[in-house]
Design a protein that fits this description.
With about 130 residues, the protein is of the alpha+beta class. About 20% of the residues lie in helices and about 40% in strands. The longest helix is centred in the first third of the chain and has 24 residues, at about 5-30.
Length: about 130
């Protein structure tokens, strides 16, 4: 009896099975097959006053009613000091820095937390 073709066929089947298992493990490590997280649309702006202070304002946006809080920092690029941003979750609320900054010397990063518990960066800019 000539069974030379059995071994290559089994080898190919095992290689395909191993490839599928490896792909499943990689997908599991990368977050699985779940739906993507929702990206919220919220507007927050930052500007410098004539005196060099930074003003951060919650402008609103389609998902403004879903914001529960904001947190953030203003980093002085020159000396690497940070100032904590406190901003209410109501449209139009404003934060004005205590520090003065040179042009493009303030790195402003603001994150919003939403009613579903998720958070995302809504502003990352230099002023």
């Amino acid at each position: 009896m000539d069974e030379k073709g059995v071994s290559p066929v089994i080898g190919v089947i095992l290689m395909v099975a191993a490839t599928i298992v490896i792909a499943a493990v990689v997908m599991g490590m990368l977050g699985g097959f779940g739906p993507p997280k929702k990206t919220y649309v919220v507007a927050v702006s930052a500007s410098r006053t004539a005196g060099g202070n930074v003003t951060v304002t919650f402008e609103g946006g389609p998902d403004a009613s879903l914001v529960t809080s904001f947190s953030g920092t203003i980093t002085n690029i020159s000396d690497q000091t940070n100032e904590t941003i406190t901003l209410d979750a109501t449209v139009g609320s404003t934060f004005v820095s205590n520090e003065t900054y040179k042009t493009n010397d303030a790195h402003v990063v603001v994150s919003a937390t939403f009613k579903d518990g998720s958070s995302q960066v809504v502003l990352n800019t230099y002023v």
